[in-house]
């Protein structure tokens, strides 16, 4: 497995691979890799000749400087894991290779980016759009893989590639959970053991909402049922919402196409999770 650090080198690599007729699967990450990321590498491995993974902690998507500074950076262990997962190339650039100049563009991402994370983390999706567009231009993959834990991010990236007519398939991959049900996240390593127990309430709240809907409750009642679970533990809830899965709008009625989404701080660490609400 080879590691690239410059924009020029990764661009040349992708051009060469394309000329050879090889298909490229791309997994963009911010490092601190865990089984969730490795499952994306495996998905990419199954469907493409070549797998490229980027490890880049993108400053422009952090709306709090402390969050950026505290974000775990574990490149050596990331590289080991990627080798074992049979990844072909890693792109681990310094910031000025990705953004030689500050990107001041305002990306048109539509309604899907406005609420939930969009409302609670001003500028976040603009920063995500900026880095994902740039990385996609450099790696020029046939397919790019994103975890569905960041469901709204996945929807925003789909909107981005549609709006900017980028020729790449965006593949959403299932959430990977620990045995306890806790969704895997690079941020989990900052939780104490007690914090990890508390954090389980996020998944519990999502399942509670699902049970409520299945038991015949309305969407509003199911949301309340989810929120009640989160009132019983020491978390700072940012939102718990049930939305239409297709565009994250508020549901006018109960359908089989809903998703519950939650964001909360546990021990000051911001966690998100979601669950597709199937009726059976
Ligand atoms: O999901 C992430 O890890 C990041 O938001 C991404 C897509 C790699 C962009 O920095």
What does this structure look like?
- This protein has helices at residues 7-19, 35-47, 65-70, 75-84, 95-98, 117-120, 124-139, 151-163, 193-214, 219-231, and strands at 2-4, 24-29, 50-55, 89-91, 143-147, 169-173, 236-244, 258-266, 269-277.
- It is an alpha/beta fold and 280 residues long.
- The protein has 2 domains: 7-173, HUPs (Rossmann fold, 3-Layer(aba) Sandwich), CATH 3.40.50; 186-271, Pantoate--beta-alanine Ligase, Chain: A,domain 2.
- Strands 1-4-3-2-5-6 form a 6-stranded parallel beta sheet, with helices on both faces.
- The mean pLDDT is 97.
- It binds pantoate (PAF).
List keywords for this structure.
Pantoate--beta-alanine Ligase, Chain: A,domain 2, 2 domains, 10 helices, binds pantoate
Summarize the structure.
This protein is 41% helix and 20% strand. It is α/β, with parallel strands linked by helices and 280 residues long. The protein has 2 domains: 167 residues, HUPs (Rossmann fold); 86 residues, Pantoate--beta-alanine Ligase, Chain: A,domain 2 (2-Layer Sandwich).
């Amino acid at each position: 497995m080879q590691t690239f650090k410059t924009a020029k080198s990764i661009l040349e690599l992708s051009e060469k691979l394309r000329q050879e007729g090889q298909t490229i699967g791309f997994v963009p990450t911010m490092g601190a890799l865990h089984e969730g990321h490795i499952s994306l590498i495996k998905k990419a491995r199954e469907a493409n000749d070549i797998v490229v993974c980027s490890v880049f902690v993108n400053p422009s998507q952090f709306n709090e400087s402390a969050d950026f500074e505290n974000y775990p950076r574990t490149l050596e262990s990331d590289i080991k894991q990627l080798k074992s997962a049979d990844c072909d190339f890693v792109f681990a650039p310094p910031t000025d290779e990705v953004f030689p100049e500050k990107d001041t563009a305002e990306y048109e991402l539509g309604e899907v980016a406005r609420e939930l994370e969009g409302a609670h983390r001003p500028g976040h999706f603009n920063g995500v759009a900026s880095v994902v567009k740039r990385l996609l231009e450099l790696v020029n993959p046939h397919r790019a893989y994103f975890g569905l834990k960041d469901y709204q991010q996945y929807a925003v990236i789909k909107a981005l590639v549609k709006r900017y007519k980028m020729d790449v398939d965006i593949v959403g991959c299932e959430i990977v959970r620990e045995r306890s049900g806790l969704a895997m996240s690079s941020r989990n390593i900052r939780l104490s053991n007690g914090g990890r127990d508390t954090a389980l309430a996020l998944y519990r709240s999502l399942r509670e909402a699902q049970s409520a809907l299945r038991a015949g409750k309305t969407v509003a009642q199911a949301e309340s049922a989810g929120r009640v679970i989160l009132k019983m533990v020491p978390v700072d809830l940012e939102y718990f919402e049930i939305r239409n899965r297709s565009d994250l709008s508020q549901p006018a009625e109960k359908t089989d196409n809903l998703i519950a989404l939650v964001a909360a701080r546990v021990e000051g660490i911001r966690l998100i999770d979601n669950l597709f609400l199937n009726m059976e």
